[in-house]
Write a structure and sequence with these properties.
Elements (H helix, E strand, L loop, with lengths): L1 E3 L5 E3 L16 H10 L14 E2 L11 H7 L10 H14 L3 E5 L2 H12 L5 E4 L4 H9 L3 E4 L20 H11 L7 E4 L12 H13 L4 E4 L3 H11 L8 H9 L4 E5 L9 E5 L2 H7 L3 H4 L10 H13 L3 H4 L1 H15 L12 E5 H4 L9 H13 L1 E2 L1 E3 L19 E5 L7 H16 L7 E5 L5 H4 L1 E4 L3 H13 L4
Parallel strand pairs: 3-12, 5-6, 7-8, 8-9
Antiparallel strand pairs: 1-2, 4-10, 9-10, 11-14, 13-14, 15-16
Helix pairs in contact: 1-16, 1-19, 2-12, 3-12, 4-5, 8-9, 14-17, 16-17, 16-19
The structure holds pyridoxal-5'-phosphate.
């Protein structure tokens, strides 16, 4: 919750008490340099024990509530017909309004099944912006992603409040160019992850939904961050100020045919669901669930997690849960912006996004500025972030580098895990890094996997810049930090 302080500041105060903790350690800068070198300058390959503050992702890293943990002890481990599943199905129907639910082990598994069933060779999937795993599954099924975002979407210094909107004219053009038979489905992502966690408005969603139904095109929503999007609608869209997050979520989902979400995000458990009210869609996907995931009533999730998810789905529409990340992100972004550090604005859901093109203008895209920035931040702070730029794009079929629209170092805020003092520490270290940005140079691949290379790729620092950065840091702070 935002509390106004007596000197006029806005403080995002944590609306929870911490009952269970995990100790973390901050290893000295020399050890951090060694760790990132062993990791091939790829933050995915760091060991958790070497990380002080882990902002790699909010997927599966959120804190559960006491009620979720308690519920998880009531699991029914039946292979088929588990009572745990029926509790989840009841929660999904109550909160999201869907009659049919298919659990899967995580978001990308839902994407796999949806792509397998609906994407055909040569088909296209228009979207407000792709996500890495979504794109991989659509392409593996023979389809192609078409990004049809609006004019402001890629402006990293924008004031536009709904950069996740789909461009209606471009959608109409795509429909007339490809025709409904070539369009596998239209996909809308709630708070577009890769362009800064930016929301869509309900006004836009309603129009996209209308265009789909008028043309008999399947409309799919990736609702992994639906509650954050709903909260941002409440804060930003005229007419929704007095609606609850739960009411807005209901209105969003009423506009789509097929819904999936990674439960690792909004509902703080390890799992995912596909949900719909259309019996024919459900029947098309259902046979594949036991083939790839597990029986219909657990779908690859542990029944403990299914129980916790039933509680998490109800809790995710609580305003203190839906707003927890957003308010911390806003504080984080605004603290950096006022100090002149290049961040993506306006603040959205999910994360604070550093604009690496502006942070490191001297590094060309073929030397991966966003990757270099994530490695540099780790060296000087022990903070782990994620590259969301050209490394996160795979090469095309001919091996040509595909440059990302944006070069982002993403600092994701897991729900209810870190406090404002953690954010203050990172802001301070980023200020130092920005002052020393000229020491950071590019990266080159020494081991490059053919798909989703950002996960396992190994890189090298050009001109051994990691050592120079480490030395400059030690000179100022000594070797213990
Ligand atoms: C928008 C979006 N869709 C899908 C996924 C994939 O979900 P999962 O990590 O559960 O596989 C993510 C995960 O980060 C995501 O942000």
């Amino acid at each position: 919750m935002i509390i106004k302080t007596s000197d006029g500041r806005e403080l995002p105060v944590e609306m929870y008490k911490i009952k269970i903790i995990q100790n973390v350690r901050l290893i000295p800068v020399e050890e951090r340099l060694k760790a990132i070198e062993v990791a091939g300058y790829n933050t995915f390959s760091l060991r958790s024990r070497d990380i002080f503050i882990d902002l790699l992702t909010d997927s599966g890293t959120n804190a559960m509530s006491d009620n979720q943990l308690g519920a998880s002890m009531l699991y029914d481990d039946a292979y088929a017909g588990s009572e745990s599943f029926y509790k989840l199905a009841a929660a999904v129907e109550e909160i999201l309004g869907f009659k049919y639910v298919l659990p899967t082990h995580q978001g990308r598994a839902s994407e796999h099944l949806i792509s397998k069933v609906f994407v055909t060779e040569g088909s296209v999937v228009p979207t407000n912006y792709h996500f890495t795993t979504t794109k991989a599954h659509i392409e593996l099924a023979g389809g192609k992603v078409l990004e049809i975002y609006g004019d402001e979407a890629l402006n990293t210094q924008s004031k536009y409040l709904f950069k996740g909107n789909m461009d209606l004219q471009k959608l109409k053009d795509v429909i007339s160019k490809y025709g409904r038979n070539k369009i596998a489905f239209v996909r809308m992502e709630a708070t577009t992850n890769l362009i800064g966690g930016q929301p869509f408005s309900l006004e836009n969603l309603r129009k996209v939904s209308k265009a789909c139904s008028e043309n008999d095109i399947l409309f799919v929503m990736d609702g992994s961050l639906i509650c954050e999007n709903a909260y941002l609608i409440k804060m930003r869209e005229k007419g929704y100020e007095n609606k609850s997050v739960a009411e807005i979520v209901k209105e969003i989902v009423s506009l789509v045919d097929l819904f999936y979400m990674s439960a690792r995000k909004n509902s703080s458990v390890k799992g995912s669901i596909i949900a719909t009210n259309k019996h024919d869609l459900y029947e098309k996907i259902k046979p594949w669930l036991p083939v790839y995931e597990g029986f219909l009533t657990y779908g690859g999730m542990s029944t403990k997690e299914v129980e916790a998810m039933a509680v998490g789905v109800r809790e995710m529409v609580d305003i203190n849960v839906a707003s927890s990340t957003i308010e911390q992100v806003k504080y984080f972004v605004e603290s950096l912006e006022t100090k002149g550090i290049p961040v993506i604005t306006p603040p959205g859901g999910l994360a604070c996004h550093l604009d690496a093109k502006r942070f490191l203008p001297h590094i060309p895209q073929n030397q991966y500025p966003a990757g270099a920035l994530t490695a540099a931040l780790y060296i000087i702070s022990g903070v782990r972030s994620m590259e969301r730029g050209t490394i996160s794009m795979d090469r095309d079929k001919d091996g040509k580098e595909l440059f990302a629209d944006l070069e982002i170092a993403r600092l994701a805020i897991p729900r209810r895990v870190y406090t404002v003092s953690h954010i203050e520490y990172i802001v301070d270290r980023l200020l130092w890094l920005y002052r020393h940005r000229d020491l950071i140079k590019g990266l080159k691949f020494v081991d490059e996997p053919p798909i989703l290379r950002f996960f396992f790729g190994k890189l090298q620092a050009l001109d051994n810049w990691g050592r120079k950065l480490c030395d400059a840091f030690k000179k100022e702070f000594g070797s213990n930090w």
